[in-house]
Amino acid sequence: MAGKPKLHYFNGRGRMESIRWLLASAGVEFEEKFIETPEDLDKLKNDGNLMFQQVPMVEIDGMKMVQTRAILNYIATKYNLYGKDIKERALIDMYIEGMADLNEMILVLPLCPPDQKEAKIAQIKEKVTDRYLPVFEKVLKSHGQDYLVGNRLSRADIHLVELLYYVEELDPSLMANFPLLKALKTRISNLPPVKKFLQPGSQRKPPISEEDLEKARKIFRIK
Amino acid sequence: MTTKPKLCYFRGRGRMESIRWLLAAAGVEFEEEFIETTEQYEKLQKDGRLLFGQVPMVEIDGMVLTQTRAILSYLAAKYDLYGKDLKETVRINMYADGTLDLMMMTALAAFKPPEEKEENLTLIVKKAKTRYFPAFEKILNDHGEDFLVGNKFSWADIQLLEAILMVEELDASVLSDFPLLKAFKARISNIPTIKKFLQPGSPRKPPPDSHYVEVVRGILQF
């Protein structure tokens, strides 16, 4: 009997959060082992668990998987959330890579020096409303279906909805001109496993606090 | 009769080079449209073919694909270079993602100011020697096979060769402590399609020089 997947990361969103979202949305229960100190990370490295000395790392199906995208691709394929053929997969990949670019900007925002932060936020907001959200609104408009690709739920919908929550956290008014995206967000949020993940007490992580940011900086030795 | 894939990018490595490598290794002939002016780039964006307004872009099988990794994954699957099952695929992904990280650092280093650039390139060689190459040497050592995954040529092997050659351009001695990678390099370089790609006159692009940096900076305005 296979055990639950085990996620190794610090107790925060970072690069692991999209993996948590995907597993949760697929209805897969998982365990988490939090890295709390630099020594915890060193131990993981020294025990030979991290192929490139980096986390995220997920123990799943007898493998110690690293590289966020590799992990997400595996989960999406295993739980049938990656389209029905190579062409649908290509479309999903295009969409999610765009989302990953935007997500990356938001993810690293806490590390931005305070004097540059305002400008950075303005830049991100512009990209949200001018580059990224219009694309996905247009996709939904073009086929009028409930999901981004192939008229059925895929990882593209899950990653997008996760991203829309972050966009809303940044500035709720950014969603104003995207009615179809708002509807997608509501629809996906109402799927039972997603609904459960969105409840308090789930394994979903909050935005990082100053205290936790300092802790993460220490663990990962970021200046 | 199928048309050749068409690659749209600047006349240089950047984010398109791994795609050129993959196509070439698979023995697929392709055409290239080089972006040389801002007007050309703006026209591409206005034509609405760049999903997020960015390149690389590849026209293939009736699709207009953007996003480097989406393109690479599609090609790897199409040309049977992506493993025989999900477990092989995830390994290939892990290895390819690692080497892509390393190569992206190198591609971006070209655009840094001179003081930072030296520092970056030194760091890249260090990461290759202490993080990436040891991992791949170990993989080859553990299974003793000719290829990284499943005893069969895959996308992971192509990426690793590309990364090795890229780092060797920065430090020719970088493989001195990695005998299996040295043998791997020789072996993969001798695969006919790859051997052809390594000849002068192939679509392979040279390392970024100041002219390339200037052109790209001018067009992308950064």
What does this molecule look like?
The complex is a heterodimer of chains A (223) and B (222). Chain A is an alpha+beta fold and 223 residues long. Chain A has 9 helices and 4 strands. In chain A, strands 2-1-3-4 form a 4-stranded mixed sheet, covered by helices on one side. In chain A, a hairpin with a 2-residue loop joins β3 and β4 (63-66). The model of chain A has no long low-confidence stretch (mean pLDDT 96). In chain B, α1 runs parallel beside α3 (68-78), α4 (86-109) packs parallel to α6 (155-170) and α6 (155-170) packs across α7. In chain B, β1, α1 and β2 form a beta-alpha-beta unit. Chain B is an alpha+beta fold and 222 residues long. Chains A and B meet through β4, α3, α4 and α5 of A and β4, α3, α4 and α5 of B. Chain B: It is an enzyme of class 2 (transferase).
Overall shape of chain A: globular
> Looking at the chains present, what oligomeric state does this protein adopt?
heterodimer
Largest sheet of chain A: 4 strands, mixed
Largest interface: A-B, 29 and 28 residues
Order of helices and strands of chain A: EHEHEEHHHHHHH
- Global mean pLDDT of chain B: 96
Number of E-state strands of chain A: 4
Unreliable stretches covering 5 or more consecutive residues of chain B = none
- In percent, how much strand structure appears in the residues of chain A? 5-15%
Structural class by helix and strand composition of chain B: alpha+beta
First and last CA, distance of chain A:
43 Å
